[in-house]
Amino acid sequence: MATDKKQEQTASVEKRLKALYELQTILSEIDRIKTIRGELPLEVKDLEDSIAGLNYRIENYSREIEELRKNLAAEKEKINNCKGLIERYKEQLDNVRNNREFDLLTKEVEFQTLEIELAEKHINDYTRAIDNKTAEIEVTKEKLADHAHILEEKKAELDEIVSETRQEEESLREKAKAIEPSIDERTLQAFKRIRKNARNGLGIVYVQRNACGGCFNRIPPQKQLEIRLHKKVIVCEYCGRIMIDPALAGVAEETSAQ
Description:
Helix Hairpins, 3-stranded mixed sheet, 6 helices
């Protein structure tokens, strides 16, 4: 009875490991397809972000120009008001009754003249700022057109590659999805975590030439025996990958030269 239970447990571990390696093989194929696409998805995303940023910059410039134009109009209105006051003060100068009134009116004329000069300076500053920002908009629009053109080309290239590999990838994903239920949740999550952290995306590897097939560190004979027995899930003490023997992976066993 105990022997049957042990055999059942060994078979269960062996079944899980075999399913896990099959899942790894399928996921590696999906990784290969992603490699074919290369950096194109990232390039497309970067270009889309850049275009959004350029559009936002143009909107900001446009808002700033609108504000400057309002300020410009206000300064022009101020000049007109000052000129009107100067005219009125000059008319009053013709009818002054004493020196005090003359001095006061003269100072008002001088003050309004200075206000006109200051407003004219502001108008010049605002005009230059509008010209500069308008030029910046044109430069940004040219850059935007270039980016849009490149994005169109990159998207077309990516769409072509995706269309060529979509059917294959979808088929692989369906196969992977079908295998996952045959692996216990704890082992599956550990495998996904290992795979995510592994540079080459390998979460499970077989023993190659007495070494881990992931990090190639040597595995002690006793540990290799435990791996071949399939009694429990064993991970590499160096890289953390799950390990199986070549026979279970369905590959010819390689031995190191004596």
